[in-house]
Amino acid sequence: MELSGHVAIVTGAGRGIGRATALELAGMGADIVVAELDQPGAERTAAEVKGLGRHVSVVRTDVTSRADLKAMADRPRAEFGRIDILINNAGIYRAALPLDVTEEHWDAIMNADDDRPEARRDRQPRVDGRQDRQQEQPAL
Ligand SMILES: NC(=O)c1ccc[n+]([C@@H]2O[C@H](COP(=O)([O-])OP(=O)(O)OC[C@H]3O[C@@H](n4cnc5c(N)ncnc54)[C@H](O)[C@@H]3O)[C@@H](O)[C@H]2O)c1
Fold first, then answer.
1. Is the N end or the C end of the chain the one with fewer CB atoms within 10 Å?
2. By alpha-carbon position, which residue is closest to atom 20 of ligand 1?
3. Which domains does the chain have, with CATH numbers?
């Protein structure tokens, strides 16, 4: 596949699957936006993308932050004038036995990995006036 002239945002591109995906896309010709929480990891991946001859932009991004997600989209629009691909890779995994999973543990994982409104319990109040599913459930 030829991706010259295309721009790809890769979240969590500082290491692992995100880094490998960013380098694969860069190898196909795409310019890369490294959207990552970990700055040293982001800079390492950015240097590797540059080594492949592609343009790269590092946007410090926490995917659980609405403001960061907006900046993640605004930066490439300003720098490259387009966004073609989003690799929504960033996430966390914390192994625990089911009965050891605390509310804090659950919320940390769901907030990073699953952005559906009904999955987020630390979010802003809904703006559409509808009730969250958890509020509709009878108390146990
Ligand atoms: N590796 C596996 O076997 C496996 C299996 C199933 C799912 N996954 C999922 O695939 C994705 C990548 O896996 P991996 O093994 O490369 O993970 P990894 O932990 O090696 O890398 C994750 C990257 O995401 C970044 N990150 C974490 N939280 C972030 C946040 N809130 N905002 C921005 N960046 C954040 C980290 O700094 C890191 O660079 C994860 O979502 C993971 O849950 C991985």
1. C
2. 16
3. 7-91 (3.40.50.720)
Termini Cα distance of the chain? 53
Tokens 């970990």 -> residue: 38
pLDDT tens digit string along 41-74? 999 999 999 999 999 999 999 999 999 999 999 9
* Cα 60 to ligand 1 centre (Å): 15
* Cα 67 to ligand 1 centroid, rounded to whole Å: 20
Q: How far apart are CA 101 and CA 82, in angstroms?
A: 41
The number of the ligand 1 atom at minimal distance from the alpha carbon of 112 is 31
In the chain, which stretches have pLDDT less than 70? 115-140
Q: What is the pTM of this model?
A: 0.86
Pocket of ligand 1 (CB under 6 A): 11-12, 14-18, 36-38, 41, 61-64, 89-93, 112-113
Distance of CA 135 to the CA centre of its chain: 28
CA distance 91 to 38: 12
How far does the centroid of ligand 1 lie from the alpha carbon of residue 83, in Å?
A: 22
